[in-house]
Amino acid sequence: MIKPNEKPMRSTLYSVILTILIAILIFSCSYLPSDEDLANTIIYHETPDYISLSTNNEQDNIGFMFLPGGLVDPHAYLTLMERVVSDSINVIILKYSANLAILELSKYKKFISEFPGIDSWYIGGHSLGGIAALSAVNDDPTLFDGLILLGSYPSEGFAIPDWEKQVLSIYAENDQLSTVEDVTAAVSYLPPARFISDIDQLDTLNANIPGTLYYCILGGNHSQFGDYGFQNGDGAAEISVEEQHEEIHSAIIKYIKRHNNE
Asked: Which pLDDT value is given to residue 41?
């Protein structure tokens, strides 16, 4: 369990956020989604605060709350999340002012009650969205059954090394914004690390042992965790968006379903 005195001082937290925001505003621009037509089997609902995706399966009681990367339009993740929801997992993609989840770290709390049929919640995010997801777990360590990071890693101010559940960290070989070196250098800020070379290993690992499962997408990059074109400063991908999304989807489904079958 995370102890109260291990949480970051607010002044330090705000300094980290301010530094991140300044860097983003100087060096980045907004990234918009590619065109996407969802399958007609998916129930799509959009409000000013979130996009929800579900199926007609009345047994769906698992929810995955996803936080977009910094300055990335939330619709840019529909291509990936369509795959996830097709496996009977409800997906809620949150929207944020200026497309920056880091500005509204507690926003996730507003929407849990809007989905009373979900009794097992997972949270995750891409890049800066992953930092906001880490903050949510730090604030409410018992609320979520798992945390999924896509091209994201914690700093000391967002560390959860003593969290008593499992984290799935998916990163990419050619990601130059959250590099392999960045991810591996931050392992001490998450529960104990275990590196996985084959997605199928997720089928056999005990879901009840706290730790962080790391999986690297060979040939993947930062931009292809979503579907919004090439992001400035990123490395060139050696696989297609579809191939990268299929690996992400497979890892997420194995991770979540294994947790809920034990």
From this structure: 79
